Amino acid sequence: MNEFNLNKIIRPNIQKLKAYSSARDEFKGEAEVYLDANENPYGTLNRYPDPQQIKIKELLSEIKSVDKNQIFIGNGSDEIIDLAFRIFCEPGKDKALTFIPSYGMYSVSAAINDVSLIELPLTEDFQIDINSLETYLGDENLKLIFICSPNNPTGNCFEDKVIQYILRKFKGIVIIDEAYIDFSTKESYISLLSNYPNLIISQTFSKAWGLAGVRVGVAYADSKIIEVYNKVKPPYNISTLNQEVILNKLNNLAQFEIEKNIIIDQKEKLEKQLQEIELVKKIYPSEANFLLIEVSNANEVYNQLVNQKIITRNRSNLVNNCLRITIGSEIENKRLLRALQFIDVASSNVESSF
Ligand SMILES: *Cc1c(COP(=O)(O)O)cnc(C)c1O
């Protein structure tokens, strides 16, 4: 049994913290005259937004089958990641851990918060090496483990038995970043929330939901963790405009499903067509909306695509000679394929022939 004790791992200053109580926190409900928040009485966006984003949480609670108090809405996943460091990690003392290659924000956020990040390499087939992790699990100063599944940029999910082993064994917080879960054949870990009081699941409206410009991410966790998140967040972290856009989207799930399925369909098509292209050496299986492909000379292929005004993500510093290609519209994907066909394989081989 996991002897997880939330109070033991929250920073003492955060435990002592009394949350700012806004005008909209103190009076809830409907009134006729609002003279409590020094707002301007004129205009349409003159009022402060709902600090608790109740309407969004009510819809998400139904859609995801969780309680409203197990939901936190953040200014992108970035805010969810940053708050985790600020709530649990004493700067200059505590540590966090993640696996590489993975999402770059964990290390940036760790550095901003002066927390040292242990980066364990994934195995050859991009899985977690449980033996190398084992020695760290007992470290008193290790507070956070980030698991990105499906993983960016490798595209695969991690083995469920390994993830659940970590959740059982580790006495700190495990954050599963599910930014790409909507594209995946695997289930979200939301259904296991009640089993693991140390689990935070991070999702986002930036990928499958098509709202990267809106900056909204969602954390699902035990209500005691969510309480602390609410205490630490800026009072009005999600604007009225953003709340409205999210509500519209959540009220039109059929459209969401259609768009998502088009992208998944396009991914399968693109994968088949890429297999026909000579300079593509390998296509990694993907549970996300991108494909990681190995080419003979990633820098050269990347530059030649840039010359044709097509931007991919050069990941060759993380995975040798690999490009990460986001699934675009049908027209965009066709343009990519045509561009790749025009790249001179001979010249893209130059470096590897040395
Ligand atoms: C894109 C992405 C996110 C999304 O971040 P937002 O701040 O919500 O836009 C989160 N995690 C991973 C691994 C991603 O690739």
Structure, explained:
- The chain has helices spanning 6-9, 12-16, 23-26, 54-64, 76-88, 105-112, 130-137, 160-169, 223-232, 240-250, 253-275, 298-307, 330-342, 345-348, and strands spanning 71-74, 95-100, 116-121, 142-148, 173-177, 199-204, 217-221, 280-283, 290-295, 313-314, 322-326.
- With 354 residues, the chain is α/β, with parallel strands linked by helices.
- The protein folds into two domains: 6-15 and 51-251, Type I PLP-dependent aspartate aminotransferase-like (Major domain) (Aspartate Aminotransferase, domain 2, 3-Layer(aba) Sandwich), CATH 3.40.640; 254-349, Aspartate Aminotransferase, domain 1, CATH 3.90.1150.10.
- It is globular.
- Bound molecules: pyridoxal-5'-phosphate.
- The site of pyridoxal-5'-phosphate has 13 residues, from helix 5.
Key structural traits:
Aspartate Aminotransferase, domain 2, Aminotrans_II_pyridoxalP_BS, 354 residues, seven-stranded mixed β-sheet, pyridoxal phosphate binding, globular, 14 helices, Aspartate Aminotransferase, domain 1, alpha/beta, histidinol-phosphate transaminase activity, 38% helix, coiled coil, binds pyridoxal-5'-phosphate
Question: Secondary-structure map with pairings?
Answer:
Layout: H1 6-9, H2 12-16, H3 23-26, H4 54-64, E1 71-74, H5 76-88, E2 95-100, H6 105-112, E3 116-121, H7 130-137, E4 142-148, H8 160-169, E5 173-177, E6 199-204, E7 217-221, H9 223-232, H10 240-250, H11 253-275, E8 280-283, E9 290-295, H12 298-307, E10 313-314, E11 322-326, H13 330-342, H14 345-348
Parallel strand pairs: 2-3, 2-4, 4-5, 5-6
Antiparallel strand pairs: 1-7, 6-7, 8-9, 9-11, 10-11
Helix pairs in contact: 4-10, 5-6, 11-13
The structure holds pyridoxal-5'-phosphate.
